[in-house]
Amino acid sequence: MQHPIPTGFRLAGVHCGIKRKATNEDLALVVCDAPAVAAGVYTKNIVRAAPVILDEQRTPTDQFHVLVINSGNANACTGDQGMRDAEQMTQLAADACRAAHDAALVLSTGVIGVLMPMEKVQQGIAAAAAQLSNDEASLIAAARGIMTTDTCRKIASRQIETSTGKVSICGIAKGSGMIGPNMATMLAVIMTDAKLGANDAQAMLTEVTDDSFNSISVDGHTSTNDTALLLASGQVGTAPLAGAELASFKNALLEVCVELARMIADDGEGATHLITIRVNGCATLADARRIAQSVANSPLVKTAIAGNDPNWGRIVSAAGYSGVDFAAEGVSLHVNGFLLYEQGTPAEFDDPKVSASIAASRETDVELTFSEGSAGCRFWTCDLTTEYVHINADYRT
Amino acid sequence: MQHPIPTGFRLAGVHCGIKRKATNEDLALVVCDAPAVAAGVYTKNIVRAAPVILDEQRTPTDQFHVLVINSGNANACTGDQGMRDAEQMTQLAADACRAAHDAALVLSTGVIGVLMPMEKVQQGIAAAAAQLSNDEASLIAAARGIMTTDTCRKIASRQIETSTGKVSICGIAKGSGMIGPNMATMLAVIMTDAKLGANDAQAMLTEVTDDSFNSISVDGHTSTNDTALLLASGQVGTAPLAGAELASFKNALLEVCVELARMIADDGEGATHLITIRVNGCATLADARRIAQSVANSPLVKTAIAGNDPNWGRIVSAAGYSGVDFAAEGVSLHVNGFLLYEQGTPAEFDDPKVSASIAASRETDVELTFSEGSAGCRFWTCDLTTEYVHINADYRT
Question: Do A303 and B386 touch (CB under 8 A)?
Fold first, then answer.
């Protein structure tokens, strides 16, 4: 699929030696030559990487110029030197693009607790700045430059018509994978050429992130570096989007973010199934999310799906310990459209048939219905296989 | 080790056919011929098995006579018929021991959502009632009768001297394992011949459970059937224990419960390491427990220990997303006594040496220190191996 690069953006991805393998890009630049809007949503972990601390101070802004991203080193738990390195990365990126120092942002992902190899980073930024382009090869190189153990690059895009022209949205993301001896992170960068107010961009990104990047789980382990950025060049249109057009932009942004989020869950370490959990009939959205997350993080549920097992007892009981109060006799459960549990009572179903439906598809649908109200949500996760354990336990041996 | 059976108790364990294999006991009786005290602590899952609902209504009591326990069927998510079956099980057990109907309690563990095979249960209760004894063989048969996929029986005991005689405490437990296509549960039954007030027994059991059975995790999946019972025959002494003697009894009870809880974590499915997590320096005990639980449930931490990997980034970041607020720069971490992370900064340590210390021992010690206060806790879990995934995903194939 051809992904349109929003007007005003140039990208590059290079290998500068943070990762060992020379064919693996490990540094990317995303540049907007004119001042742009940037909004950010960051990890809720108390232990925050230096780039997260820095970017939080600098967003939202309408003076954004350049973003530098590296993979292979998370610059997390690196103390004062880590903060200085993050600042220097933005300085180098800003200098390379003749932008103000604080018009630059930085994202890092990879090994925790190791100081950034700044000499390599400096060379990488210079090399990337020399290759900036708005062609698809640059987009792909940048998308590859933020990967850790992702098995595939993650790009999603949408276009919508507005009264002042066609607006493009294009995002890149990386998923949960291991690098070196430590965990990696989820990163997403969404570019658009829409004209957006900085506060609108921030509010939209926060809201959309809750329904996408904050609604996925691979192993329930929130990292120190998770970040989603929305960058808006404002090259299409004269006044910031508002009213119905802003709403339609938000829908398209949500679609891009959900598509990227699903790609991250689908590419979870060792995954053989992408699991969509739908929770309906809750008193509040927060309740629905809490139940969905409890089911998504249950190793018993995840191993059952890996074994093509419609194990409704594990799903219903994972809802039961979520901390949300509900009437047990009002719970129903569908898996892949089959009714397994109805109003608190086991339903009669064709076990081998349901099992075969799980085995036949990469995607599994789990739908839990409660009798408390009308709030609901979607949540995405993946199954838990022996390959996950191998990736995360055996890489030293 | 010889375990003293507290005076006043008789036990039996038999095979009645709930489990397929004839050498696996699947039904146990614990009988006190004179009225005894019984206190219970139950699962916090909203979805509760019939025996849990019934026993909750009947405890605490000072009129306890007989407990029937079966493995192989959890009698959970079985609707009204399940409640009738649980009641009938207590009726059958009470009749067999010539006790009042409501002087009986029932525990079940095993497959969810399948009606109890009451004919087999009836025969089992009759057979067990004919074999009741206070010898060690009966204790072992009862301990075996409550096992599901536990690889070993779990018995712990202590004796303490009181002014009115020697008091014995003896407990049996079963751990987290799978049976049939569904999850099983944690059960524990602690017998003592001490004379205890029913309210004292309940308060002690609740408190001690928080520091033992509620401080372990195998996969974070709270079951529908979890129960701990304290049964006190009152055969030693004339007045209920009080003051310093009650405190010393509570200490011994805690030791028995911690020993059983550690056995459950150690026998977690596929486990190769028992992990003790110590959390110190928190503002509150609740904070310490929340952090310990977050670390204990992280698949990334559990796979790291399985791989003998002193992966401090995973441990520190799991604390960071626990939901507890703390100063990141005040965190220190020891693994097996080695300092890996000091006041928010990576410590220099001999990585292969720490790894070798994990590989060399069945037990791994993780100690996290914070700078918020003086509250702390202990928590036990096990590592996550490919064998866990095999047990829980592949048993149908």
Answer: no
Least Cα distance to B227 among B51, B35, B37, B36 occurs for B51
Distance from CA of B285 to the nearest CA of A (A): 19
Task: Write the pLDDT tens digit of every residue in A284-333.
Answer: 999 999 999 999 989 889 999 999 999 898 999 999 989 999 999 999 99
Q: Which of B77, B79, B219 sits opposite A300 (nearest CB)?
A: B219
CB nearest to B316's CB, from A77, A314, A318: A77
Whether B314 and A45 lie within 8 Å, measured CB to CB: no
CATH 3.40.109.10 fits A274-393, yes or no: no
pLDDT value at A179 more than 80? no
Q: What is the largest CA-CA distance in chain B?
A: 68
* Contact (CB<8Å) B320/A45: yes
H-type alpha helices, B307-374: 312-320, 351-360
Distances (CA, A) of B40 to B47, B82, B206: 17, 20, 8
What is the distance, to the nearest Å, from the Cα of residue B202 to the centroid of all Cα atoms in its chain?
Answer: 16
- The active-site residue, picked from A185, A224, A364, A385, is A185
Q: Are the Cβ atoms of B182 and A311 closer than 8 angstroms?
A: yes
Distance from CA of A79 to the nearest CA of B (A): 6
DSSP assignment string, B215-245: GEESSS---S--EEEEEEEEEE-SS---HHH
Whole-number pLDDT of residue B304: 93
Give SS3 for A196. Answer: coil
Contacts of A319 (CB under 8 A, 6+ apart): A291, A294, A295, A326, A331, A368, B46, B47
Question: CATH 3.10.20.340 occupies which residues in chain A?
Answer: 274-393
Q: Identify the CATH assignment for B9-266 out of 3.30.70.1130, 3.50.7.10, 1.10.560.10, 3.60.70.12.
A: 3.60.70.12
Pick from B16, B10, B7, B108: nearest CA to B66: B10
The CATH 3.60.70.12 domain(s) of chain A lie at: 9-266
Q: Using alpha carbons, list the distances in angstroms from residue A345 to A353, B50, B53.
A: 20, 13, 16
What is the DSSP annotation of B244-284? HHHHHHHHHHHHHHHHHHHHHHHTSTT-S-EEEEEEEEESS
Q: At how many degrees (to 10) do helices B386-393 and A386-393 cross?
A: 170
Active site residue B185: yes
- Return the top range by mean pLDDT from A43-52, A222-231, B51-60, B168-177: B51-60
Q: Cβ contacts (< 8 Å) between B222 and chain A: which residues? A: 317, 320-321
